[in-house]
Amino acid sequence: MLFAALLLLAAPLLAQPSTPQDLVKEGDKLSREGKQDQALELYRQAMQASPNLYEAHFGAGAALDLKGEYTQGRREFAKAIDLASPPSKAQAFRAMAVSYAFQRDSGQAAKYEEQAFNLHLTARDYIAAAETADELARVYLESGDVDNAELWYRRGHETAFVNKNMSPAEKDLWNFRWEHAQARIAARRGRHSEAEKHVAAAKTILDKGGNPNQQRFFPYLQGYVAFYANDYKGAIADLRNADQQDPFILALLAQACEKSGSPEQAMNYYRQILAINIHNPTNAFARPLAQQKLARATD
Fold first, then answer.
1. Which CATH number do you get for residue 70?
2. Residue 3 lies in a domain
3. If you write DSSP's letter for every residue of the chain in order, what string do you get?
4. Domain count of the fold of the chain
5. What is the mean pLDDT of residues 129-152?
6. Assigned domain for 288 exists
7. Is 140 part of a structural domain of the chain?
8. pLDDT in tens, 244-298
9. Residue 150 pLDDT level (bands cut at 50, 70, 90)
10. What is the extent of the structural domain holding 251?
């Protein structure tokens, strides 16, 4: 009995040290929890043990961007691009593009999104290419370059239809996305009646029932169009029915609250955004704004 107890006490001392991959997984978890500094320490430990570990540099780049340290983050993403295996190369390019989206630098983002787009085209993965085109289009749109946004949304739609084996539901999905995009583009151009026509067309496609999982994107579309028509109370009503885990939607809500005279509610939405620790375009558009607004509120 005594010997068994001693073995149990010694077990932690005998445990194998964490592998670099384990360190990265734990770092990813910490970064999602908003503990970027702790995550970075684990990524650095992983790099010391395995300097060419793609995942460690990728994770570090994302954590640094979430901290607002974009130049350092891009150094890590550049290393990740160099180290990426062919299946991961497009992912690394897109992450670098998102890094530039945090600063609304659509020109630099485009250089990397286009490389990812071309990789997918070369592999004849037309759906992945179309999704990448749409991602770039959204970066352009939210950076204020509406003409290039329209060009790349159109390219995404056309690229998806290069796939001749799409089911009717898949065709509806891409037609819905195209109407959704055209409505937002028209809204940004101040063409409200045109935007509403595309909203109606998007609803008609949804009502066919082939893509029930897309229903959640419709209140966001209605709220977006209302926001750019200066109907802030209508935007709030619609956006509150949209995905409350999407930082971009929360950012629109916050801005609509500010413009309708509810600054305290706006601050609550900005705080919610900073609790979301994901490295993607929606957070790239929302997080810097939330950081700026909350910093000003404490000055």
1. 1.25.40.10
2. no
3. -HHHHHHHHHHHHHSPPPPHHHHHHHHHHHHHTT-HHHHHHHHHHHHHH-TT-HHHHHHHHHHHHHHT-HHHHHHHHHHHHHH--HHHHHHHHHHHHHHHHTTT-HHHHHHHHHHHHHHHHHTT-HHHHHHHHHHHHHHHHHTT-HHHHHHHHHHHHHHHTT-TT--HHHHHHHHHHHHHHHHHHHHHTT-HHHHHHHHHHHHHHHTT-S-GGGGGGHHHHHHHHHHHTT-HHHHHHHHTTS-TT-HHHHHHHHHHHHHTT-HHHHHHHHHHHHT----SHHHHHHHHHHHHHHHHHH-
4. 2
5. 98
6. yes
7. no
8. 999 999 999 999 999 999 999 999 999 999 999 999 999 999 999 999 999 988 7
9. very high
10. 243-299
